[in-house]
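Quick one: sequence plus flavin mononucleotide SMILES, need structure tokens.
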Amino acid sequence: MGFDEGKGCLKREPSASARTVGASLKALPQVADTPGYTLAQPRIGDGPPRPTAYTGAMSKLSEDIAHLRKSYERAELDESQSQSAPLQQFDQWMTEALAAQVPEPNAMTLATVGPQGRPSTRIVLVKGYDERGLVWYTNYDSRKGRELADNAFAALQFHWVELERVVRVEGRVEKVSAEESDAYYRSRPLDSRLGAWASPQSQVISSRAVLVANAAKAAAQHGLNPDRPPHWGGYRLVPEQWEFWQGRKSRLHDRLSYRLQDGAWLRERLAP
Ligand SMILES: Cc1cc2nc3c(=O)[nH]c(=O)nc-3n(C[C@H](O)[C@H](O)[C@H](O)COP(=O)(O)O)c2cc1C
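Reply:
Sure thing.
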């Protein structure tokens, strides 16, 4: 076993049981068909030594956090009241989130998977949704952009804390058309349009001054009507699975899952 510096992942000779699992994993299309996917994945408990030794002492803060509890009692999610199509259910909940004036109702966590099968998350803003999927805009050369170029499967999650609601969406990601990205880019304030030129998103920069200088350079170069940078645009997640979670009393939460079966949405209740 050793740490493969080139790949940044722990490599080990497969044990007999790992070989068996590996063999059966290979038969699963979602694993074998993912380009760049490697089976050199750690199990729980594997891994290099931790940077600091665990002393067993729990801080006061940790204890306080462990005792934080909230009872969820605001609403219910019932089969008889929910929509039969997940997009309509999402539309209804988004409408209610807007009406309730929750902070940043269109903020969602986007999870992608890197080349070594390592997940990463960040928050992005949904800028549109319809039968085709959910759209956000970003830098195509960013970490998320590079991860999506290698593996188009992604997951999204909204957490509307005040409404005690979560929506999860999973599916395959595609780029929106250049026309769609152009139209959205043109609708942005000028400083945001210039910012898309100024920020090499996710790259290491030596200081904040670099950004400020880049922004001034972009303003001088592109003026008041900048074109959309080729490295900036929209992605659309095409949903294959949705889940709507409504917090309930005594941890007996409501969870309705929708998955595609023979081209139709199948709604199922999941245990909380
Ligand atoms: C509320 C909120 C909204 C954000 N919206 C976006 C967005 O729409 N697009 C985007 O590229 N980054 C957005 N960000 C920044 C991202 O979370 C992230 O820092 C950035 O996209 C770089 O991620 P990456 O290095 O994983 O690619 C947002 C951050 C917050 C806190």
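Helices lie at 16-26, 29-32, 60-66, 86-99, 143-150, 178-187, 190-198, 208-222. The longest strand covers residues 232-246.
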